[in-house]
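Troubleshooting: if your tokenizer reports a length mismatch, compare your output against this known-good record of 57 residues.
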Amino acid sequence: MDKVIIASVEDRLTVAAILVKNDYTVRQGKQLRPGKKSYEYYLEYTLNDKPKQAAGE
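Known-good structure output:
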């Protein structure tokens, strides 16, 4: 999964909505910043595989 760090809640929701509409699987998370006591928030995303068509379709 690819990852993008986005601090603003509104921006994360907007980007997540765009990705979902374009057939991506999206999840959000947080992790401690290296050497800090605060968190950074991110989205992880991956493009969904297109379904294979059955023979004769």
